[in-house]
Amino acid sequence: MGVRFAVLFLDLDRFKSVNDSLGHAFGDKLLQSVSQRLLTCVRASDTVSRQGGDEFVLLLAEQKGAGEAASIAAKILAALTLPHWIDGHELITTTSIGISLYPEDGDNPEALIKSADTAMYHAKEKGRNNYQFYKDEMNLHLVERQQVEASLRRALDHEEFTLHYQAKVNLDTGMITGAEALLRWRHPEWGMVAPARFIPVAEATGLILPIGRWVLGEACKQAKRWLDLGLPIGAIAVNISAIQLRQEDFVSRVKAILHQTGLPGRHLQLEITESVLMADAAHNGTVLQQLKDIGVQWAVDDFGTGYSSLSYLSQFPIDVLKIDHSFVSSIETGPHDGIIASAVIGMGNNLDLCVVAEGVETWAQVEFLRQRHCDEAQGFLFSHPIPSDAFAKLLVAGPPRLAA
Predict the structure, then answer these.
(1) Which class is 147-397 in CATH?
(2) pTM of the prediction?
(3) Looking at domain 5-135, does it have CATH number 3.30.70.270?
């Protein structure tokens, strides 16, 4: 059968945030702790090496096949999620792992490491904290990703981005209470590019920072225009990524945009997911409160898919809970999703928060939500995401009328 072995390429997830928040000395100690964990997961015949930064390469000798490599990768994932205690700090870190096999994925060290590296990036895009085996089609995916990145870098300068707006509707009055600003990209050759195709690339490359600043500024300018026209916009909601929230100047940038556009803080609502909120609870709590103090609202998006804990939520100055569309879409047929939606509404009511159901598409869903005292809804039933001029007409005409 010949000699077989596997190469594992590891990259710690979000390690940069550790260096940025706690310092490089702390980061170095974390790397040492990770190294010790890795050594406990492999055999004496295997080799563990640090590639550089927060990357590690493992050579697993005398492999019997993919199953054995997968078993060790799973063992590593489990080991690294256990808390690290460093200088009085408890830290949980995860890793993304790419696996290549000899001789299938390369016949020399460089080729095998490159294949494992490519598979590791695929693991990152799959949500991190997982392992992926190299496949030939990953090279095509990598080329696609590089093309998207290159095009993104010029998109802002070439004014290829635009914002569409989706209405949020009060379930008691039927009135529009606000809108969510959603980024759209019209590429000169590809046409409209789906957000799922470019947002992960923007976040992975850091391009989400200039793009996010543009989105926030454009949304605030548009909301101020509607207010000046006497249109009842309520609050404009803008999604904020984890990397944006971690920036030291995030609060000052938001304040500067509000000042430059003249939009009062109460007309801006910032949306973050549960996982982003809890990634650095102490830091995020401070950021949320500083902007809350000037009237900015905070919404927890996709609620029900993460921590879902009443005790966690009560620690933060949250104004809005948004029920994830996955729990709304099958309300009529999935009893468990109905239970989860009801529980989220009850939780929000108990905390005196506004509860918004996402992805509402039928009147039966509306009736279910109204019976359980959900405050607002957002979805195709009322309006698709539409350009600003069309949304202005919707503000005047109103959405489809709710039944009494």
Answers:
(1) alpha beta
(2) 0.69
(3) yes
